[in-house]
């Protein structure tokens, strides 16, 4: 059987009303008129991508994809369907499904339309083509070694793995970056393009990246978040500069040091006061 999900050179066997019948190794595939922009003649050779239509018939297209079986490339997310997965554009008329089984457990960090995933093609149990996101091992072979000059520089990249520990990205220069959960205020989506700041260039050529602003910039944002919690709590929150770091992170998603800096700013401005382990709005 002709291998689906691959690019093959086939011979035009004959022309029919709906298109062309192609042949290779005594196997046939149908090339519809809307899948080619050129007129073909019998015995002419043509390079096509093979997939199966809704009826399971082997179908060909001269629109060659950016990825195929065992070859990886970037694909744009075009549609996301809850409980099913995400459809990506691989450069052909047929959009490929990334199954929910290959996406994060929580749908709030699934990709959205416009995000990018680094995928290859595979098959499900029924032999249907699927887009499969690259694993960590694949990225380890693909990445370039980051230079030391990138320290403190801005970088942009797409998220290819995200979980409670942190998010891994591939930058636009093909460097691998890791964003620890303490260096992000919210967990980015799989496939999302994020911009951050390099806080470490590691010996293995990978980067540690922060999505948080510099301390002098983040202090104002953190202070605003504290004021917002105070207003929601009728002017009092059960936090002070002596509170447990994990409790602080659980509510404000910032470190205890950042929390204390923001408290100090608000106290200096005369907006709050601390008493008996609580913070009060003045």
Structural summary, described in words:
The protein has 282 residues and is of the alpha+beta class. The chain has four domains: 7-61, OB fold (Dihydrolipoamide Acetyltransferase, E2P); 73-134, Nucleic acid-binding proteins (OB fold (Dihydrolipoamide Acetyltransferase, E2P)), CATH 2.40.50; 143-210, Beta Barrel (OB fold (Dihydrolipoamide Acetyltransferase, E2P)), CATH 2.40.50.140; 215-281, Arc Repressor Mutant, subunit A. The protein is built from four helices and 18 strands. It has helices at 136-142, 215-232, 245-252, 256-268; strands at 7-16, 19-24, 27-32, 45-52, 58-61, 73-81, 85-89, 96-99, 116-123, 129-133, 154-162, 166-171, 176-180, 193-201, 207-210, 236-237, 272-275, 278-281. Strands 1-2-3-5-4 form a five-stranded mixed barrel. Helix 2 (215-232) crosses helix 4. The longest helix has 18 residues, at 215-232. The mean pLDDT is 91. Residues 152-212 form the S1 motif domain. GO terms for molecular function: nucleic acid binding. This is S1 motif domain-containing protein.
